[in-house]
Amino acid sequence: AATSSSSSTNNGVHEVFLSFRGEDTRKTFTSHLHAAFKRFEIRTYIDYNLERGDEISGTLLRAIEDAKLSVIVFSKNFASSRWCLEEVKKIIDCKKTRGQMVLPIFYDVEPSIVRYQTGSFATAFARHEERFRDSDRPNKKIQKWRDALAEAATFSGWDCSVDRLESEIVEEIAMDVLNKLNRVYVGDLDKEIARYDQLAKHQMQYFQGSPHPLHYQNYKDSLNRIRKLQMERHQRL
């Protein structure tokens, strides 16, 4: 079975659903993107399960419905997975019925190939059509997949084919998602404030044990740094 995007966040609450073709990007781009989401404290539903049937699970359908935003990582072999195509179809349905935001990412594939189903996508659909040739439902099902891909590819997203470091693109995508969720990340400042707070406590203890103007000045410098960081945190919020 193909891999795409059901391990949820620990508390079962997520903001983002991440859809991807596992064999293409699970160990590369998608893992880096998911790591960036975690650094930015973006609660993400991602499925690393490898065993799949032909039909998308009810749990996964609910996960898509519950998300505020779906990120679709289109890759060269994305359309070869019926599971991935079903995810995209469900995501587009949720955009129409629930106002869900959709962010397409084009990794190692041109947006036009996804939109018009040419190249590797044309090959994949030819195989789907052959597989459903003797079925009574091929045309309708396949056409819904095609329509969903075409619509998803028209949304404003990210083209990763540009000549830039992948690490930079991943960070910018994570920030873009954070902005679309109308959230501000202050985790980095909180960590730095905690670090300086601990340092100030040690400096005060050192000053008390060995009174010296320089030791006290170091303590005051740490307090000033904490105040500046707190102000920056307040400005972000």
From TrEMBL:
<feature type="domain" description="TIR">
    <location>
        <begin position="12"/>
        <end position="181"/>
    </location>
</feature>
<dbReference type="GO" id="GO:0007165">
    <property type="term" value="P:signal transduction"/>
</dbReference>
<protein>
    <submittedName>
        <fullName>Resistance protein</fullName>
    </submittedName>
</protein>
<dbReference type="Pfam" id="PF01582">
    <property type="entry name" value="TIR"/>
</dbReference>
<keyword id="KW-0520">NAD</keyword>
<dbReference type="InterPro" id="IPR000157">
    <property type="entry name" value="TIR_dom"/>
</dbReference>
<dbReference type="InterPro" id="IPR035897">
    <property type="entry name" value="Toll_tir_struct_dom_sf"/>
</dbReference>
